[in-house]
Write a structure and sequence with these properties.
Length: 493
């Protein structure tokens, strides 16, 4: 065989392999930060909106914190309908609901076998009801994730403050985490210790917040029962409290903290509000707030329901600042979300939908002054392709970079959106946005952190070119989405 023929034969043998290798070759992503979110934490932030449902004996006694001496006989909602909760939540764009299975009064919304202080001794459904069961069934029917709140502080239990109570608490956790299917989030509240009924002794009990519950052990126990559950507390380990009950994340908000600096129930709220760029764990902030002044339903607050515009403002200060918006809607004595709450929630959803339905930057060409490589994978146009998974990244080691979005013809907008591909960590520390106005670049706004999502409200601008400047970052900056929107008229009413 001639040498030429051998080469030819060799080519025929190797070519399919070469072809296969080149087809399956995927250029590598940017190098991730040391601290990145888990897939569950990414999915959690993408939900954006979550509902809280505070419901218990307090609903019937008109209190915020039950003392623990309430008779189960008072729990008797005439038309409890968990499907109405789920239906309303779904229509409002909420992705998960969290129910107070037990609040500080110790009354259990499920027939726990470890206490008599529960629905099993209530007239509701002749003691055969289970609100937790009805709740999880309704959530699943409407495609909502399920979260549960089990108050560590229990003003009813005789053993609260003693080691015996910890066994009781874990037994209840086991019931909730093994008998109701998949639970996506479990909420550990920080309020702890004080006066209470405590089995009839009516006294004040204090616990050592640092040691009493042995949180690391409780969290391990929880993860053993439900490996995918996300645990909320002041200190995480998966989701942290944002440090206030107004639903406001800090203007600067890192999804990282150093959890060893945080004591559950005695946290530095400023620290929680802004997170920590040097944080050692990914623990994003959850922004909780009630649609009414109280967490529980009180008829004298029927006219104090937050307006749709107030809810929209909170949306910008929570979701728009890299947080999740956890909005409480307390069922009334009937066991239903009140008409006023539903009306406000629906209008809130309509406004948000209207504002963000049309991104004026979609499909527009983008030019970057720095690219990771010339590969399509990192192309500047990826920030206007509407996909969260594609992204632009600056060249390795480059921090200052700018992206110019060419809108073609002049457009008017007053809302901006930036998103980082957080699966590689949170990076951007500071950015500015300039617009081409009267033949020159003029700065129209500036911001600090971005994270999963950053929304900015500005006065309406008309321009055909927008420039995003990354001014400071912890690592090579990357952007997955950029958006320009015109606010719904409903935002202003
Ligand atoms: C607080 C509790 O004391 C309130 O009653 C409410 O449940 C809120 C969400 O958390 O710490």
């Amino acid at each position: 065989m001639s040498a030429k023929l051998i080469v030819h034969h060799l080519f025929l043998i190797l070519a399919p392999g070469i072809f296969l290798v080149s087809c399956s070759y995927q250029s590598p992503d940017i190098t991730p930060n040391n601290v990145v979110p888990s897939p569950q934490q990414i999915a959690y932030q993408e939900m954006e909106l979550i509902g809280f449902v505070h419901f218990t004996v307090n609903t019937f006694t008109d209190k915020e914190w039950g003392f623990g001496d309430e008779s189960p006989a008072i729990f008797n909602p005439g038309s409890l309908d968990t499907r109405q909760w789920a239906r309303v939540a779904k229509a409002a764009g909420l992705k998960e609901l969290i129910l107070t299975a037990k609040h500080h009064d110790g009354f259990c919304l499920w027939p726990s076998k470890y206490t008599e202080h529960s629905v099993k001794n209530s007239p509701w459904k002749n003691g055969h009801g289970d609100v937790v069961r009805d709740f999880v069934d309704a959530c699943r029917e409407y495609g909502l994730k399920v979260g549960l709140y089990l108050s560590p502080w229990d003003r009813n239990h005789a053993d609260y403050g003693k080691p015996e109570y910890l066994t009781y608490y874990r037994n209840q956790l086991r019931e909730l985490l093994t008998e109701y299917g998949e639970i996506s989030e479990i909420w550990f509240d920080g309020a702890n210790g004080g006066d209470g009924y405590y089995g009839g002794v009516n006294e004040e009990r204090r616990i050592d917040r640092e040691t009493y519950y042995n949180w690391p052990e409780v969290w391990q126990f929880v993860k053993k029962l439900q490996p995918n559950v996300l645990i909320f507390s002041d200190a995480g380990p998966d989701i942290r409290w944002i440090g206030n009950e107004h639903g406001f994340a800090g203007e600067t908000n890192w999804s990282l903290i150093d959890a060893s600096k945080v004591t559950v129930g005695a946290a530095d709220t400023k620290y929680l509000n802004s997170g920590d760029p040097k944080g050692t764990s990914w623990i994003a902030g959850e922004c909780d707030v009630s649609i009414r002044p109280g967490w529980f339903y009180h008829s004298d607050q029927d006219d104090k329901v937050k307006s749709p515009q107030e809810l929209v403002d909170i949306y910008y200060k929570s979701v728009g600042r890299n947080g999740t918006f956890l909005l409480n809607i307390p069922p009334d004595k009937r066991g239903l979300f009140h008409e006023n709450d539903v009306a406000s929630l629906n209008e809130f959803q309509r406004i948000v939908h209207e504002t963000f339905k049309k991104n004026l930057a979609i499909g527009k060409p983008v030019h970057a002054n720095s690219l990771q490589t010339d590969q399509e994978k990192f192309a500047a146009d990826n920030i206007t392709d509407e996909s969260l998974s594609s992204y632009w990244a600056a060249g390795e080691g480059i921090i200052n970079a700018s992206l110019e979005i060419n809108l073609g013809s002049p457009a008017i907008f007053d809302r901006l959106m930036l998103q980082e591909p957080i699966r590689f960590g949170q990076r951007i520390r500071e950015f500015s946005v300039k617009c081409w106005i009267d033949g020159a670049w003029q700065e129209i706004t500036r911001g600090t952190t971005v994270g999963y999502k950053r929304l900015l409200r500005i006065d309406p601008i008309e321009t055909n070119k927008v420039k995003l400047n990354i001014l400071d970052a912890d690592n090579t900056p990357a952007i997955s989405n950029f958006g320009l929107f015109k606010a719904s008229e409903g935002e202003k009413q």
